[in-house]
Design goal:
Rossmann fold, 2 domains, seven-stranded mixed β-sheet, six-stranded parallel β-sheet
Length: 392
């Protein structure tokens, strides 16, 4: 680890050039940096359309957008806008592009380094070669940084990974994790009247659509779960992004429901901004979703959250239980585990979690562990969640 640095930057650039969930999990890092440097000005660089999770964040003075595939002219314009304007760049993603942005923008840098993902079995020769290649790619990044933190896809939570970037500024690194750690959600925005007028309490929010197919839960299971929820007297609100596959998924689920069940379901698919989704979730009795960014948002909104996990290690990317003290909230493998306001459910199998793209290791693959995560397990988690709510 790098030695202690007494640097007190006046201008800091945070760089997170990935998806909206990756942006949200940087907020504990931003909050902790604010404690370190109360008078510094913080800017944030990310992809266009991916930074709604920071809307209204009190610590960020400016958002700087770039496209995910910039052409030469955009690179040149961004370079001129950033060039040596900052005392410190905090590179929260291990990509080469993010590091080039940090190199252009600031006099000093700290950053996350990628590593070859090591699975639960021994590496073969190809994996070893991949790790050696990763080490060579990281060498120049280490050379330009005050401090770096390596990704660990199985043992280190992503929130911990980001916070550890600040280790170099602490004489006692225990102080980083000795207080409650919070993910900061975006400010809430009012729901459109056409949605707000349909809501009645208590309601549950369900978000069935992940970014990739291998994180999906079977359609028939959603039918069973939603039918049971409505039988308990709860209204069900379906959420989804505007993406075509998510809109179609919600329609597929609705088409399976009997009319009396369908009448107790509101489909908000594609109609909510991220801040509006936050408002909807904050007022819900509980939330159920798959491994996706909105599930992280639900946990950040302090709503009781039930997350259905397949290939992804919860120890790396489980929704952070707001207010947790320490570095690791979760076990790697447990059929059911509840920490704070978050319950994570996993299917059976010694291979769980594999961190692959489903059983066939491709985006449109099925995941047997999710196929075997039956509705009864989710229903039991709902019953236990509601019992805890009533006990409060």
């Amino acid at each position: 680890m790098s030695s202690f640095s007494s640097l007190k930057p006046k201008k800091v650039l945070f760089i997170a050039t990935r998806q909206i969930g990756d942006v949200l999990v940087t907020t504990p890092l931003i909050s902790k940096a604010r404690e370190l440097w109360p008078d510094a000005q913080f800017h944030f660089l990310g992809y266009r359309g991916k930074m709604d999770m920071l809307k209204g964040n009190p610590d960020i003075a400016k958002l700087i957008e770039t496209s995910d595939r910039p052409k030469f002219g955009e690179y040149l314009s961004l370079f001129k806008r950033l060039f040596q304007r900052y005392d410190l760049a905090i590179v929260t993603q291990p990509s080469d592009r993010a590091y080039f942005y940090g190199l252009a923008a600031a006099f000093r840098r700290i950053g996350v380094l990628g590593s070859h993902p090591q699975g639960l079995t021994e590496q073969d020769q190809a994996e070893k070669a991949g790790k050696n290649k990763s080490d060579k790619q990281n060498a120049w990044k280490k050379a330009i940084c005050l401090h770096t933190v390596e990704v660990d896809y199985f043992k280190q939570h992503v929130v911990t990974e980001k916070l550890r970037l600040l280790e170099v500024f602490y004489k006692n690194t225990h102080d980083l994790f000795s207080k409650p750690i919070f993910v900061t959600p975006p400010i809430g925005l009012a729901l459109a009247p056409v949605i707000a007028e349909q809501l009645h309490h208590p309601y549950a929010v369900i978000h069935p659509g992940p970014l990739t197919a291998y994180k999906r839960w079977p359609l028939a299971y959603w039918k069973t779960l939603i039918t049971w929820l409505t039988e308990q007297g709860w209204q069900v609100v379906l959420s989804a992004s505007p993406a075509k596959q998510d809109l179609e998924l919600n329609q597929d689920i609705l088409s399976l429901l009997e009319d009396k069940v369908r009448n107790q379901v509101i489909d908000t698919a594609g109609q909510l901004s991220i801040p509006q989704a936050g408002t909807l979730i904050r007022n819900a009795l509980f939330y159920i979703g798959v491994d996706t960014s909105i599930t992280h948002l639900a946990a950040a909104c302090n709503t009781p959250t039930i997350a259905l996990f397949g290939a992804t290690p919860p120890t790396n990317f489980g929704p952070w239980p707001n207010g947790f003290v320490g570095e690791q909230p979760y076990q790697l493998r447990a059929r059911t585990q509840t920490v704070g306001n978050v319950t994570i459910l996993q299917g059976p199998g010694e291979c769980v979690p594999c961190r692959k793209a489903g059983c066939e290791d491709k985006a449109n693959s099925r995941s047997e562990c999710l196929d075997l995560l039956e509705p009864a397990q989710v229903i039991q988690a709902v019953q236990e969640t509601v019992q805890r709510i009533h006990q409060r």
